[in-house]
Amino acid sequence: LGLLSLFNTEIIKDVTLYKGGVPARFGGRASSVLEITGREGDARKWSGTAALSTIAIGGTIEGPIVKDKLSLIVSARRSWPDLIITNGLKLVDGEWGFGARFYDINSKLNYQINDKQRLFLSFYSGSDKEFIFSQTEGAKTQYDLGWGNQIGSLRWNSIWGNGIFS
User: Fold this and answer.
1) CA gap 72, 88 in Å, rounded
2) Do residues 80 and 64 touch, judged by C-beta distance below 8 A?
3) Are strands 33-38 and 47-52 parallel, antiparallel or unpaired?
4) Residue numbers of the chain with a pLDDT score lower than 70
5) Rounded Cα gap, residues 96 and 145, in angstroms
């Protein structure tokens, strides 16, 4: 909804901005590239964080499923003011109300096959919604405008030699 960053910072490991001299792996374009590297999850111990801001509540949990072999990280955010505002408007004036909400979830499984090979399974889901509702004696009306994305990926990294990988 334009109120929060597009990126959930709890799942980001590193960010690099290339403003000129873009590396060939990005296609050698003349513009700029923002490279964002995600966290892979802690393969040794379980940990978690929780956050509450003026607009959202969120949390992250990460840890080993199989110690030093298979790890998981899951991070989620959701707006919370819509719960209070929408219900408050219904209590104050039962005829109409409005609201907006969003959520996003990021997750990644990281499987270390051996010292030179890793397998990653990632998933993202996010949604925004704005709504207006009205209620009179004989009719209920609700207008919703929503949009969202879902994506999953499977990636296999393999180190073939000194400086050679796929």
Assistant:
1) 38
2) no
3) unpaired
4) 1-5, 28-30, 86-94
5) 17
CA dist., res. 147 & res. 100, Å (int)? 12
Q: Are 34 and 12 in contact (CB under 8 A)?
A: no
Q: How far apart are CA 132 and CA 37, in angstroms?
A: 38
Distance, in Å, from the CA atom of 110 to the CA atom of 37, rounded to the nearest integer, reads 14
Q: What pLDDT does 89 receive?
A: 60
By DSSP bridging, strand 12-18 and strand 70-79 are: unpaired
What 3-state DSSP class applies to 32?
A: coil
In tens, the pLDDT along 84-103 reads 776 656 545 567 777 788 99
Q: Residue 27 corresponds to which tokens in the numbers above?
A: 């296609």
**The one-letter amino acid at 120:** F
Which structure tokens are listed for 30? 């003349």
Residue 95 CA: distances (Å) to CA of 1, 38, 39, 98, 113:
25, 45, 47, 11, 59
Is the whole model's pTM more than 0.85, yes or no?
no
Residue 62: CB atoms within 10 Å = 24
* SS3 (DSSP) at 70: strand
Is the Cβ–Cβ distance between 65 and 42 less than 8 Å?
A: no
**pLDDT at residue 156, rounded to an integer:** 96
